[in-house]
Amino acid sequence: MGLFGALKKGLEKTRSSLINNIETVFGSYEEIDEDFYEELEESLILADMGMETAVQIVDNIRKEAKERRLQKTEEVYELFKDEICRILETANPNIVVKGMTNVILVIGVNGAGKTTSIGKMAYQLKEEGHHVILAAADTFRAAAIDQLKVWADRAGVEIVCHAEGSDPGAVVYDAADITHARWADVLICDTAGRLHNKKNLMEELRKLGRILEREFPTAHREVLLVLDAATGQNALSQAKLFAEVAPITGIILTKLDGTAKGGVVIGIMNELGIPVKYVGVGEGMEDLRPFDAREFAEALFSVEEKN
Questions:
Q1: Going by C-beta distance under 8 Å and a sequence separation of 6 or more, which residues neighbour residue 18?
Q2: Nearest C-alpha neighbor of 204 from the set 162, 153, 170
Q3: Domain with CATH 1.20.120.140 in the chain
Q4: CA-based, 20 to 30 A from 171: which of 67, 112, 192, 201?
Q5: What pLDDT tens digit does each residue of the chain (307 aa) get?
Q6: Backbone φ, ψ for residue 302 (5° rounding)
Q7: Of residues 83, 8, 93, the one with CA closest to residue 49
Q8: Is 91 exposed, middle or buried (0-12, 13-18, 19+ CB in 10 A)?
Q9: Do residues 93 and 3 lie in contact, with contact meaning Cβ atoms separated by under 8 Å?
């Protein structure tokens, strides 16, 4: 059905909760006043965008409306859409650079959809013609290695793994050697589902990063954080804590099709300045979609229905 259609379908729950509040605010006021702005701000907070982001959006809209001497709320709706798109816009949503070795470290807590996302990424990158290798460096969780093996088989890519409980760093070292030997251009490394309050696991994450820097000094590197959209503001808290210990370059937002809290992506990108690279809108191999800011905003807020 195309990216927009898939997004719109996948965001039905988020739209049903968010759009009702937003349209109620805009429908309750014909002309702009402070009561309108206060209610709009409250509705954005309730949409899981977070206090800081909601206040900033409304302040920017208020300033722009004043400069343009706008008086009608229907005119402000377009400003609202543009403000959301400004936050969501990313310079380069791609995770691989052609003609280079690409190393992707995937992090996130257990249950966020990390391993599933890796499998879908591997499949799509292989379909695009890349030589992909997976490193099963999540050696702590029971059956994590077997789970990644299943996804590697589905995607038709090679996997490097050691026994459960082994050193994750050793897995990454071996995967680096094989990547060089095979002349592979994409290495995707799974990691343990680190809880942000487990200091030793965060130290392990730093260690893996150092290994990859030494083994691939000239490679294009990505550190992708997988977040479960259904956790709402907790996802924003996770992103802030992970950002303290890892140079996160992008976010994979999963399970958008099963939650009403997809608005959290706006708060994450606004407060942390980290771009969303992929969004999960279904269970299929093709349902991990490259992120498009304008289409996401249109699908999330159904702005086209206002025209």
A1: 47, 260, 262, 263, 300, 301
A2: 170
A3: 2-88
A4: 112
A5: 565 676 777 777 777 766 777 888 888 989 999 999 999 999 888 888 889 999 999 999 999 999 999 999 988 988 988 888 888 876 567 899 999 999 999 999 888 899 999 999 999 999 999 999 999 999 988 789 999 999 999 999 999 999 998 999 999 999 999 999 999 999 999 998 765 556 677 788 888 989 999 999 999 999 999 999 888 788 888 888 888 878 899 999 898 777 667 778 888 888 888 888 998 887 888 888 888 877 777 777 654 443 3
A6: 50, 45
A7: 83
A8: exposed
A9: no
Tokens for 136? 């099963």
Domain with CATH 3.40.50.300 in the chain: 102-301
Q: Which has the closest alpha carbon to 300: 95, 28, 48?
A: 48
Q: What angle do CA 160, 238, 105 make, to 5 degrees?
A: 20
For domain 102-301, give the CATH number.
3.40.50.300
